[in-house]
Design a protein that fits this description.
382 residues, alpha+beta, two-stranded antiparallel sheet, 55% helix
C-alpha cells in the first residue's frame, strides 16, 4: 500500500519500531532489525540520522550494545550542530523582535523542546524555520540583512514572490534559517498568520520565550512536510508524528479543520493512517473518515503524488510539478487570461531574474540539465 519513496523500507521500518518500542520489547525488536540488516556497519544515511534515539534508548535502559559508541558519536554530533543552529535562531528572533516583527518557530526547532523532552541532540536539524506575517516579510528580510544575514544565492529574496513559494533561505556564518511567509508548501494563502496564530503557544528556546504553532497544527504540518521527497527517504517525519501524538494535546476537530482549509487532507490522512497501521497509534476513525471524504481538486491530487517522488532525474515530472504549483497559485475562478498574465512573473521567479527576455535561455539550460541528469541515471542503471 505504501510504495512511495518517502516511506521506509522493510529494514528501516524494523529499526523505527525498535527505537519507538517500549522497554519490554526494545531488545527483541533491536535484535530483529540487526538480523535483517546484516552488516549494520554500512547503514543508509536515513537510519544513521536516527541513531541519537538509539543512544537514548540504550542509555535509559542501562544496556550495553556494540552500537552504543556509534550512537553516542551521532548524538554528540547532532547536539553540537543543533546548538549552533538554535543559538542562531535566538539571534534572528531577537532581531525580529527588536524591529517589532512577530514570529513563530516552526518544525524541528520547536519540536525538540515540545516533543523530544528538550534534548537537542535527539533529532537532526537541517536548518531553523521561522514564520512571520506576509505583510512584514520585506521588513524582516531587510532587518536580518542589516544584522549580518544574507540570502542564499539560489533562493534570492530579490526575486522572491510569496504567490509562488513559501520561504527564503538566509544564512549567517554556518547557520541557515528558512524565513517563511507561509507555513506550508501547499498552502500559499495571504491569511496564514491569522489561521495559525489561533492556537499558537509559547515555549522556551535556549531561555528565549518564543511563539510556535499549537500541537494540533504541528501535527498537520508534520504530516504535510513529511510526505515530501527531500533527497532521500528521510525517516524523521515518522518519529515526529508519533512523538507529537504521544506528547501533544491534540484536538482532532482542529486537525480536521486545518487539514481541510490548507488543502493537506490527503497527506495528513495518509501519514496518520500509516502510523496507525504500523505503530498501533490510536487515531479516531471519524477523523480518518472525514479526511478521506474531503473533496480534492485535480491539482491537489497530482501535486500530492508528485512531491512524494524524486523528480530531479525526471524532467517531465519536474515540469508537471512546476505547472501544478503555478496553477494552485492562481485566484479562482481561473481564466485563460489570468494564466497567461501571471505566467511571466512565475517564470521570472523560477529563473531568479527580473528580465523576461532572459527566461527562455535560462529555462532551456535548466531543462537541458534535467535531461542530462535523467540520461546519466538511465545509462548508469542500464
Amino acid at each position: 500500500m505504501y510504495k512511495s519513496t518517502v516511506f521506509p523500507t522493510s529494514t528501516q521500518l524494523l529499526f523505527l519500531k525498535a527505537i519507538l518500542s517500549n522497554e519490554k520489547d526494545f531488545a527483541s525488536r533491536l535484535l530483529e532489525w540487526k538480523n535483517c540488516a546484516g552488516n549494520y556497519t554500512e547503514l543508509d544515511e536515513s537510519t544513521l540520522q536516527l541513531f541519537p534515539l538509539l543512544y537514548k534508548k540504550i542509555i535509559d535502559l542501562e544496556q550495553s550494545d556494540p552500537l552504543l559508541q556509534v550512537a553516542t558519536n551521532s548524538y554528540r554530533h547532532h547536539w553540537l550542530r543543533n546548538s549552533l543552529l538554535l543559538h542562531a535562531a535566538v539571534r534572528a528572533s531577537q532581531v525580529l523582535a527588536k524591529n517589532h516583527i512577530p514570529s513563530m518557530v516552526l518544525k524541528g526547532g520547536a519540536w525538540l523542546y515540545l516533543y523530544y523532552g528538550g534534548d537537542i541532540g535527539l533529532r537532526k536539524l537541517e536548518d531553523i524555520d521561522i514564520f512571520i506575517p506576509q505583510q512584514h516579510f520585506p521588513k524582516a528580510v531587510t532587518a536580518l540583512k542589516h544584522a549580518g544575514w544574507s540570502a542564499h544565492p539560489q533562493n534570492s529574496d530579490t526575486y522572491f514572490d510569496p504567490r509562488f513559494f513559501h520561504a527564503v533561505s538566509i544564512k549567517h556564518d554556518n547557520a541557515s534559517i528558512d524565513l517563511h511567509c507561509h507555513v506550508l508548501h501547499a498552502y500559499l494563502n495571504d491569511n496564514d498568520w491569522e489561521l495559525f496564530s489561533e492556537q499558537a503557544q509559547r515555549f522556551s528556546m535556549n531561555n528565549l520565550s518564543a511563539l510556535t504553532l499549537g500541537d494540533s497544527d504541528h501535527l498537520v504540518h508534520a504530516c504535510a512536510h513529511g510526505l515530501r521527497w527531500s533527497g532521500s527517504n528521510t525517516l524523521r517525519w515518522i518519529v515526529d508524528i508519533v512523538n507529537i501524538l504521544q506528547r501533544g494535546d491534540i484536538h482532532w476537530d482542529r486537525v480536521v479543520k486545518v487539514a481541510k482549509q490548507t488543502d493537506t487532507a490527503l497527506s495528513t490522512v495518509t501519514a496518520l493512517t500509516y502510523v496507525r497501521d504500523e505503530f498501533s497509534i490510536k487515531i479516531p476513525a471519524q477523523v480518518i473518515h472525514e479526511l478521506q471524504g474531503h473533496p480534492t481538486t485535480l491539482s491537489t491530487r497530482r501535486l500530492y503524488l508528485l512531491v512524494m517522488k524524486n523528480t530531479m532525474n525526471n524532467p517531465f515530472a519536474a515540469l508537471e510539478t512546476y505547472w501544478w504549483r503555478y496553477y494552485k497559485s492562481l485566484q479562482h475562478p481561473i481564466s485563460v487570461n489570468q494564466i497567461i498574465a501571471n505566467a511571466s512573473g512565475y517564470l521570472r521567479f523560477l529563473c531568479n531574474t527580473s528580465h523576461t527576455i532572459k527566461v527562455p535561455h535560462i529555462v532551456a539550460v535548466k531543462f537541458g540539465q534535467l535531461l542530462l541528469r535523467s540520461a546519466t541515471r538511465y545509462l548508469h542503471l542500464a
